[in-house]
Amino acid sequence: MQPQTAALRNSSTVTEFVLVGFEQSSPSTRALLFTLFLALYSLAMAMNGLIIFITWTDPRLNSPMYFFLGHLSFLDICFITTTIPQMLIHLVTKNHTVSFVSCMTQMYLVFLVGVAECILLAFMAYDRYVAICHPLNYAQIVSRQMCVRLVLTSWIFGMVNGIFLEYISFRNPFCKGNHIENFFCEAPIVISLSCGDPQFSMKLIFIDAFVVLFSPMVLIVTSYARILASILSRASSSGRGKTFSTCASHLTVVIFLYTSAMFSYMNPRSTHGPDKDKPFSLLYTIIIPMCNPIIYSFRNKEMKGAMGRALGRGNLV
């Protein structure tokens, strides 16, 4: 107890962090990465922005599914904007430091948007369940007011959960350096730099991630189990194919997001390292937000048609 107290007392106050990220890469590699990530970021912003525009303005997409999809794209834009612009700046500058407050703010926004997206994906699964299994009562069950409430619930849950996770991550002073082996302030890495007992904080993060990920997963699995039972009971093979196609897009997004989140926040810290963390961080901070609109648009004829009308090129077939 006394050594721990002495360590806390002797720890210097950290006022900034250094995001190591791709600092050790060669100038040519950083230039290549800057070009690649700028292109991916621009593509993600453009495609998600287009989905927001068409789902909120095209009267043919005036349904709960596209209402949720528009908000999913908005969350994706928020998510990539909290991390990627800063990474792009650090790829072309020598100063990779961020202030203590900036690090806290970035981490909070990542938690808020990430948790809200997990909850929203569960509500989207419930929407598909009602649409497929209770089509006659769909308009009454999933009304416009209900859609707004569900979206607000996902945001509120993300805000409250973000406050809790922020407190867990920054509750101890820092005495193990200020170099973060990633391109943004990721909670497990920040916690590993703190004094006291980082393992206790990591256990709380693990428990929180378990609740945040598996609670929505229960709703998703239950919804799709009932959808599958409904599909298999149908005689029409064409109806089955159309339903499977509609659900496949959502399931693909769920698998990508949940898998990367589980690896980042539910794996023992001893199995992590910069070479393993950065690829998964890139996956859920830029690759998934870029792929979401592609997955939904290419597998949905209504989205293709709406995009074609928005771009002034007629229907895409």
TrEMBL record:
Domain of life from the UniProt record: Eukaryota
G-protein coupled receptors family 1 profile domain location: 47-296
PROSITE patterns listed in its UniProt record: G_PROTEIN_RECEP_F1_1, G_PROTEIN_RECEP_F1_2
Membrane topology, record value: Multi-pass membrane protein
Matches recorded under Pfam families: 7tm_4
GO cellular component, one term: plasma membrane
Subcellular location(s) per record: Cell membrane
Residues passing through the membrane, by range: 31-54, 66-88, 108-126, 147-168, 204-227, 248-267, 279-298
InterPro entries: GPCR_Rhodpsn, GPCR_Rhodpsn_7TM, Olfact_rcpt
Described purpose of this protein according to its UniProt entry: Possible taste receptor.
Family per similarity comment: Belongs to the G-protein coupled receptor 1 family.
PANTHER family, A to Z: OLFACTORY RECEPTOR
Protein name, as recorded: Olfactory receptor
Species of provenance: Phodopus roborovskii
Phylogenetic placement of the source organism: Eukaryota, Metazoa, Chordata, Craniata, Vertebrata
